[in-house]
Amino acid sequence: MQRIRDKGIKDPLTGEFNPTFYRNVNPEDMLRDLSTRYVYQKHAKDLVRYYERFAEIFFTKPQLIQSESGHKRAWICDAMRRFGEYYDRKFHNPELRILIDEVIKRYELNKKIRIHDRIWLADEGYIEKMVFQILEIDGELGIIIKFAFFSGLRGEEITYAHETEICDSLMGCNCDRLHIIHKRNGISIIVLNRLVGQKHSYFTMVPTLLWNEFRSLKRVTKEERKIAHVVLKSHTGGKATLMDLRKFHYNILCRSQIGETGAEVLAGRAKSISAKHYLIHELDKMSEQYVKCMLQTYFK
Ligand SMILES: [Zn+2]
What we know:
Layout: H1 2-6, H2 27-35, H3 41-60, H4 70-91, H5 95-106, H6 124-134, H7 139-151, H8 155-163, E1 166-167, E2 178-182, E3 187-196, E4 199-207, H9 208-215, H10 222-235, H11 242-255, H12 259-266, H13 272-298
Parallel strand pairs: 1-2
Antiparallel strand pairs: 2-3, 3-4
Zinc ion (ZN) binds at residues 167, 169, 173, 175, 177, 179.
């Protein structure tokens, strides 16, 4: 409370100091602001709803949030951070944003968040930090790890993408080899069209440079994947595994212009009909969006 007073954090309604300033936030205004930042209205709505439910607890008894599930904590942290940014944009005062960040760190609200749920939206800052740490890993294992992150493929699919012969003809060919489209923007589209049991993978995209490095590796079998997994785990102090890279990929794409549907398609979870639609009609747009959210941010 002292901090709220000291840092000039004002009540949005009265413009005065008020220990319960967060109650006077206009959820509709916050929604309007966030909506311009997300493709899907629902995502912005969910964030505002989380804010409304948890702001009071967050600013008064944040320790109570510790007992919530990882999934919920992540949403709460995300909602509070987005609120801090909204507040900063509106009142030109970054102090609240900094305070929120400190509360999250001090009460370890995003600690030991493990990823199990299918659509799991981890705290954005946490993902970014983890990914940068993961991308530090060099050498051949680094290439496997980077490929896992940039493609979002499952373990077996990674090996499949490495071993399967490449067909020379482009779209429209129905053979069971890989079909690759190299885009001028530095992205390669890898059409796997693979279905094993319930697990589909239609196509994915990766930076072309990475694709070439990946394909020139000698072996990417289960064994190499296992070693990559161990190295990754020790490099991140047990916080991330090879499987988590697929989740990070999904989460980043979900928040980008690609949105939930596009992310589902790339993760091989959408119906094949919508994957085909994307492949035929949305590919240019999608690869441009991918350049923005993945290549420019993470590919060095
Ligand atoms: Zn073919």
